[in-house]
Amino acid sequence: MLKELVERVILEARRVLIEREEDVKLLTISTVLGGHVLIEGVPGIGKTLTAKVMAKLLGLQFSRIQMTPDLLPADIIGTKIYDESLGDFRTVLGPIHSNVVLADEINRASPRTQSALLEAMQEGQVTIEGETYRLPQPFIVIATMNPIEMEGTFPLPEAQLDRFLMKINVDLPSHDEHIKIMKNIHTIQEFNVAPVASGDDILKVRAMLPAVEVKDEVMHYIVRIIEETHNDPSVKLGGSPRAAISLYLCSKAHALMEGRDYVIPDDIKAIAAHVLRHRILLSPEAELEGVTPDSVIRSILNKVPVPTPGVKE
Asked: What fold does the segment set 2-205 form as a domain?
């Protein structure tokens, strides 16, 4: 079911998103899992457009929060205001109460405001003056970051980064992609895409995940990859148990996307960089030498032995 859903989403997304099939796949997987995504790329490459298109294609409610230094937690989660007609306080819900929430330039918000997202991202709920409000399902935060403008920003702490299921790095388009974008700019600006799924479809696929088989040897493979992130001399801080769980769940979703009900090592290899790159903190010496999280992950995948096939053929 996920395979067919992804195919429908990609087909319709091509009307607006040029050569972004891989990003569409990853965002669909994340939405099915209810995991949050950090998208990093220079300005003008369509990070915001991608989030809006995905929400529309999946038939989900979308809201955008432009993160700025003066933004307050109440601006995100909501607050209580006095209503003279009622003679009492009433709750005004903030933009976090949506299915797909775009936190644009998340690192421009103060740490206090960034922390307002933590309960929502981890628990699927927010607390407004002592009252708890469940967030709609499916729920996903898509946060964007600009890697080149650091002035006036607040680095995301490791605890918050770890709550993102994936980090997607969006590169500049190639020469041919630039041409395609210019040729299709009017279609892109018209935002002419139609929903091809619904929130119920997403939840139905999510309900299929427990039935996806993961053999013990494949689980050991996942854990060895995480362990190697701690053993690599270039790494100051490696993957947490949450990283192992994220890799496990993403591999299940990737298997479904490939039309299988069992996980193979190739599922883990295909998804590992996106799940781990924001969870690896390099040593200062490694950074000076030009080492990147992605190069560390590639080295680990080449180093860890692939388990002997013990799954269905």
From this structure: Rossmann fold (3.40.50)
The CATH fold of domain 212-303: Helicase, Ruva Protein; domain 3 (1.10.8)
Residue type, 192: N
Q: What is the pLDDT of residue 151?
A: 67
Nearest residue to 281 (alpha-carbon basis) of 268, 271, 269, 291: 291
* Eight-class DSSP state of 277: T
Does pTM surpass 0.85? yes
Per-residue pLDDT band for 1 (boundaries 50, 70, 90) equals: confident
- Residue holding tokens 């009622």? 86
Strands in 227-276 per DSSP E: 235-237
Please calculate the CA angle 94-98-104 and round it to the nearest 5 degrees.
Answer: 75
Q: List the chain domain ranges.
A: 2-205, 212-303
Query: Which of the four pLDDT bands, split at 50, 70 and 90, describes residue 172?
Result: confident
Per-residue model confidence (pLDDT) at position 152: 67
